[in-house]
Write a structure and sequence with these properties.
The protein is of the alpha+beta class. It is built from 12 helices and 12 strands. The chain is globular, with a radius of gyration of 19 Å. Pfam families: Thiolase_C (PF02803), Thiolase_N (PF00108).
Length: 381
């Protein structure tokens, strides 16, 4: 039987909205990541049989099947196909799942799963031309679809999380990200512009703050409720970035002289309450653990996308998880969350983290709008 393994995983450093990549089109950013992936893997791009790309806001420069456009921009042979998908914040992770499933099924020997998002050049909701009011009124009459920020507030209410809890967690995310800034072997230094408009190479995630002032964080106004607890400081940063993961059939890769770095123990996607919407991470985690035959105690590294601090803290309370294992190098509150890229970027980051620390098993789980979640468990080889 075919077995899909991860052979290489890379991401660009993430840039702030209006930051280093403000003049870089998203198709060019993804092409850069694809070329970096192939260079590091030492694989001829002609061997890739599909490129699956996550991109959330598929409009403007991110429309017209950005995956295929980036493959052509990267100079891959025209015979290499590509498809773009939108599972919202889980898009990049889902792209890896689909690539791995194609390899497991024997449909491909090598496939790429990745993602891209330029939230600077293609703002959120530009694909629907506005907010939820643009959705079908019949749907809105059946389902209470609310802003994710309000969902994050309701999660804080349900799990009795205070503003101080969220701010303290967020400051720790920055601290961990700053402390690990030079450990990210998955990063592809990428060209951009500095604040003065001069070309430079971005080698780190632009949103990380070396120092966090508790007073300044506490002074931030609530973003979604007048007396709420969710602020710009305890939510993910709006960012630009791209990521790509090369998946291959294990025996074929070995025969080609490539080194399998990890195998999949579980790949899941779940649906959950579309109003609370962000806590699908709970059933996704349970399903992934059940499929893998593992317990939480078996895991060495846990990546929970920090869309909002309340999501991660609620997850930790439910599972009584060891905080030291959760987002050990910080998360999206510090390094940013380029929507379509984050799922693949976190996989690359988690694999680099497992290799850096000698860990074996890692769980990645992501909350998704409209009440979904994706989860992956990998085993480092």
């Amino acid at each position: 039987m075919s077995e899909a393994v991860i052979l290489e995983a890379v991401r660009t450093p993430y840039a702030k909205r209006g930051g280093a990549y403000r003049e870089v089109r998203p198709d060019a950013l993804l092409a850069f990541a694809l070329n970096g992936l192939m260079d590091r893997a030492g694989l001829d791009p002609a061997r890739v049989e599909d490129v699956v790309t996550g991109a959330v806001t598929q409009a403007g420069e991110q429309g017209a099947n950005i995956g295929r456009l980036a493959v052509m921009m990267a100079g891959f042979p025209v015979e290499v196909p590509a498809v773009s998908l939108n599972r919202m914040c889980g898009s990049g992770q889902q792209a890896i799942h689909f690539a791995a499933q194609g390899v497991d099924a024997g449909d491909q020997t090598y496939a790429v799963g990745g993602g891209v998002e330029s939230m600077t050049r293609t703002p959120m909701f530009s694909d629907i031309g506005g907010g939820f009011e643009r959705l079908n009124p019949d749907l809105l009459g059946k389902v209470d679809l609310i802003h994710q920020g309000e969902s994050a507030e309701r999660i804080a209410d349900r799990w009795n999380l205070t503003r101080a809890d969220l701010d303290a967690y967020s400051a720790e995310s920055h601290r961990r990200a700053a402390a690990s800034r030079d450990l990210h072997a998955e990063l592809l230094p990428a060209p951009g512009l500095n604040a003065e408009g001069e070309p430079f190479t971005l080698t780190y995630d632009e949103g990380i703050r070396e120092q966090i002032s508790p007073e300044k964080m506490a002074a931030l106004k609530p973003a979604f409720r007048e007396n709420g607890v969710v602020t710009a400081g305890n939510a993910s940063q709006i960012s630009d970035g791209a990521a790509a993961v090369l998946v291959g059939e294990r025996e074929a890769a070995l025969a080609d002289g490539l080194r399998p770095r990890a195998r999949f123990r579980a790949r899941v996607a779940v649906g959950d309450d579309p109003t609370l919407q962000l806590m699908g991470v709970l059933p996704a985690t349970r399903k992934a653990l059940a499929k893998s035959g593992l317990t939480l105690a078996d895991l060495d590294w846990i990546e929970i996308n920090e869309a909002f601090a309340s999501v991660v803290l609620a997850w930790m309370r439910e599972f009584q998880a060891d905080p030291a294992k959760v987002n050990p190098w910080g998360g999206a509150i510090a390094h940013g969350h380029p929507l379509g890229a984050s799922g693949a970027g976190l996989t690359a980051k988690m694999l680099a983290g497992l290799e850096a620390t000698g860990g074996t098993l890692g769980l990645q789980v992501m909350c998704i709008g409209h009440g979904m979640a994706t989860a992956t468990i990998i085993e480092r080889l």
